[in-house]
Amino acid sequence: MKLLVTGFDPFGGEKINPAWEAVKELPDTILDSEVIKLEIPTVFNKSAEVVKEAINNHKPDVVLNIGQAGGRFGITPERVAINMDDARIPDNEGNQPIDEVIQKNGAPAYFTQLPIKAMVEGVKAAGYPASVSNTAGTFVCNHIMYQVQYMIATEFPNVKGGFIHVPYIHEQVVTKASMPSMSISDISKALEATLVKIVELKDQNDLKLVGGAEH
Amino acid sequence: MKLLVTGFDPFGGEKINPAWEAVKELPDTILDSEVIKLEIPTVFNKSAEVVKEAINNHKPDVVLNIGQAGGRFGITPERVAINMDDARIPDNEGNQPIDEVIQKNGAPAYFTQLPIKAMVEGVKAAGYPASVSNTAGTFVCNHIMYQVQYMIATEFPNVKGGFIHVPYIHEQVVTKASMPSMSISDISKALEATLVKIVELKDQNDLKLVGGAEH
Amino acid sequence: MKLLVTGFDPFGGEKINPAWEAVKELPDTILDSEVIKLEIPTVFNKSAEVVKEAINNHKPDVVLNIGQAGGRFGITPERVAINMDDARIPDNEGNQPIDEVIQKNGAPAYFTQLPIKAMVEGVKAAGYPASVSNTAGTFVCNHIMYQVQYMIATEFPNVKGGFIHVPYIHEQVVTKASMPSMSISDISKALEATLVKIVELKDQNDLKLVGGAEH
Amino acid sequence: MKLLVTGFDPFGGEKINPAWEAVKELPDTILDSEVIKLEIPTVFNKSAEVVKEAINNHKPDVVLNIGQAGGRFGITPERVAINMDDARIPDNEGNQPIDEVIQKNGAPAYFTQLPIKAMVEGVKAAGYPASVSNTAGTFVCNHIMYQVQYMIATEFPNVKGGFIHVPYIHEQVVTKASMPSMSISDISKALEATLVKIVELKDQNDLKLVGGAEH
Known about the structure:
Chains A, B, C, D: It is an enzyme of class 3 (hydrolase). Chains A, B, C, D: The active site is at residues 78, 141, 165. Four copies of one chain form a homotetramer. The first copy, chain A, is 31% helix and 20% strand. Chain A is an alpha/beta fold. In chain A, the strands form three sheets. Chain A has a six-stranded mixed sheet, with helices on both faces. In chain A, helix 2 (46-58) crosses helix 4 (140-154) and helix 3 (116-125) packs across helix 6. Chain A is globular and about 40 Å long. Chains in contact: A-B, A-D, B-C, C-D.
């Protein structure tokens, strides 16, 4: 089994992007499954092109994108991606779509194929806070989750896709009042726990499938 | 123009449901548009039947459902409803669907037809906190929002539908630590501000339409 | 019985100060006790001079100062004032003491003479969130609470003093993300509930007296 | 220079107390200063007796007590301890003082002799969130901080005392919704950063001294 795990490149003048730093620290193999790590641009559409090229090159069984949602208290696998870009701030190339459809022929939303509730339990068993999230927002994170699902619906029917939001890291909240944070190392260990569950349950999906290509 | 506004009945042994109390305090007319107020059961499916009957009886132009999301800091119009019931607790008749599709032939999600960003601005101009929400959860609130959208997609193409989550009221947080709250009266005034915007902008929708019957 | 209740004047270029607006809305008489309302400057030391003059003029039995602590979720009577000014921002006249003793001959701290737990219960019974606070901070709020206590310790032994922090009002959080708020009118009603308790329990103090003039 | 650092024993049926676990992981020497680690009981008065015995045995220059304040977002050195026990729950031996004076002959409050602002800066420079706190509460944490200060005021004039509150650890919040947390290892590294500052600035105190024996 092959797992493609992505993290965004540094955003808005920052030197590092914690999501990518945590992905980089993942082991190269999890339960005999290969982990391919990929840094992707924090840019609408271009992020999707980079992922698509990697899917074509590596033929992964699973695509898991990781992004940061400052303010969250734990590891939050996303349930659903919606067909909507709505950016409060520009991406790394200055794009700022407002209430734009991502794919005109895409479904209004796609649900993840990953066992998100088992992944949450796996993180908790490893000693870290986690919960299922029902929104990936409307910025580049939801965008890439949606785009991967659209690729699955249209081109790669055997791939499973999903997205996980992670909290701020400690260094980022030093100048912020009252914001939860985790270390890169702990985020990475928690992500590893989700990958273990994905591999263990590769034949299961704890969401009844809805909203696939039939819509 | 006719506005059908609903609130849920008391839930889980409570004597009142704040959402319905706030709806009851709305004026009967807003900018010459009639406001029809309806209490609906906090029950999967049955809530939808009650709304459907009211749509058939009253022929409203707009259906706006109101529910409570304890923990939110202001008035939050919802952007999207997803085709998924996932209840952590039972509804008022003991139903507790887990990861269930709401409508097998429904779209994975429906976006509201209401001008949610203008509604948020209307509430703020009236002096109350508000923001667009991208998730109505997976309990009865998302359920009724989804069901109304499904009715619109399949039976009532001229109706506009939407949902607003409101915070706890003050009385509810007296025994809770550190939870935001508003008075019923203030919630009602804020809801009125959203209805004014809906009437004023009846020919507009600030989301580009996606995910309708074509999917 | 005479109650002197103060609120600060507008701070930092604001047009209104919610604490004073809430005080202004208090009734003039509570359970036959006269309520004297006084706006005081948001200025170290000068605020204390204004209160002292009012004590000399009105001979109140109780001095209750009201201030705002943005971020608090309810009405929070303060237990204790400490002998320390430490201002992160300048007051309305540009004073910004850092780790300064307020009164060289004062006690390190003074506990309120008011029945703060009963006051909290009174607010809750009126339907609003409330809790005892153990810190009034180190800005002008703690300063005036401390100064009144110092006056009581040194000049007005029959006066009872205390301080209540109130949350943001709704209008203030319209541009702030995720901050709790109450309306001026609700804050005022909650403050009235504390005054009722003060009058009812005028011969009681639910803190065993410590740290008075003997130190 | 000798540093006595304490952590509480497990409380309320828990198997570990994170504060003590973090203390245990501290190095034995910091900048040539010896670090003596002591587990103390989560019990009013008895905790103070244990610390006093250790002061007599080890003759430390600094006594730093560590405790947990669930809900805090970072490392929070305390500014002041107040002469007040007020326990919402019983301690480990069933004591539950309500509004009780700790020391009849003690000052109403004592300020720490430690350079708390420099300690905060040290933690931030190490990459962890931190801020000065103005209340240690009214449970065993404030109690031990007060008692150590009382000992300093009455018996050990050359000792410097202080207290630091630390957040929940990750394992503790797995079953709690939306609570900030840090790993034991990160808490320990942050505490080490405060000790470095204490040693470096052993001749400084960034609070002007107030409320000592002279009152």
